[in-house]
Write the structure tokens for this entry.
Amino acid sequence: MNKCPMTTAAGTPIADNQNSQTAGPRGPVLMQDYQLMEKMAHFNRERVPERVVHAKGAGAYGTFTITGDISRYTRAKLFAKVGKQCEMFGRFSSVAGEMGSADTARDPRGFALKFYTEEGNWDMVGNNTPVFFVRDALKFSDFIHSQKRDPATGLRDNTMQWDFWSLSPESLHQVTTLFSDRGIPATLRNMNGYSSHTYSLWNDLGERYWVKWHFKTMQGIKTLTNDEAAKIAGVDLDFHRRDLHAAIERGEFPKWKVQIQIMPELDAETYRIHPFDLTKVWPHKDYPLIEVGIMELNRNPQNYFAEVEQAAFEPGNMPPGMGASPDKVLQARLLSYPDAHRYRIGVNYAALDVNKPRCPVHTYHRDGQTRFDGNSGGAVNYEPNSVGGPVEDVRIKEPPLKISGDADHYDHRDGNEDYSQAGDLFRLMSEDQKMQLVGNLVGAMKEVPHAIQVRQTIHFYKADHDYGSRVATGLGISIDEIS
């Protein structure tokens, strides 16, 4: 089949639509990658006015209390001593479903948290799974398109989903998680949360540590089967939202134990697993969990639109002592999230009450749509100035990050192994969990064209022969086709 060349909206041919441009294979994404920026900016503007992803959610306020000392890793004042507290807000959401979709669909859940610290807001924009479907943000909008609706029929289409996944072996770990028993949480209170991305912490000595955040439910993990989820959806599309609100009203405040994994900066250069790969986890035997604190939700919003719908989280909100990493997807999210908020709820979104820091704010931002405060009165709107306006503080400058390599579009699949962790996850499951996983996969793939079934089942077989063989049997695929 002859294929026409892909171009930008301006007609310029595109040389690489698979890999973002980075400084070296593991380096940070470059701002000069026009195709990445254009795809993300266009993607953020595809829906009006609900969120493109994570459209339906529930939220509540609470407190975060420090119970473990991690001050050796970070200068952030929030973690200065055991016993400190700050107010926080959390929003939990499905990923692919629209505003009116069923809460009990099989879908990852967003796990977005805003901590109002004395040094500004800290936003942790994570999921209820420790990994994701893609490792390069250039493929994010393509992935979401495959999970949304067929442009011809306007219907959700399993063929689109499995076509993309079967051509993207890096998705296997997350696919295995999604179709396991944990793919449908019983309630929002009964699921874990994860940063998924690798972030960083740094201290007053200029030492940097790579970090992964874990939020372990203290209510216990509880899940739903497909049949249970379907029955609930037939009665109450808002089951999860209703449950969270009702539990807090009853005084049954849900709690999560907050823990971290810490990797010294230099370990990343030699660690056997790519430490910034969003499709991978760090085994706990290599980097054990360290206690940080307890998160409790204890106050419901008074107005859903003002406080939940207008809540705006962005991974770039990090007080001094916290930072990003060269994770390609995180690097793009640093730009994409605030860009989406400006489009969806206006350029002054950060001044809305749910998003407004609880500490003083001094910026030179002025004007813009829906400016609803005094617009800083007659204060000057430029810097430097000679009238005593706010200035930078070099004492809180993040330590420099050493990078190397040529600027290029590096193949994110080159040298990456996408099967072992998915296989490890399968082998950890009980027999009942394995049966649920295979049953869920076979049910989702049974109407998909045979060629796509075979292509995907080969991935399962590479992860674990028993895993692939069970799916093949369920789909009526010959073992010779996949082995």
Q: What stands out?
A: The longest helix spans residues 328-345. Residues 419-483 form one domain. The first strand starts at residue 21 and ends at 23.
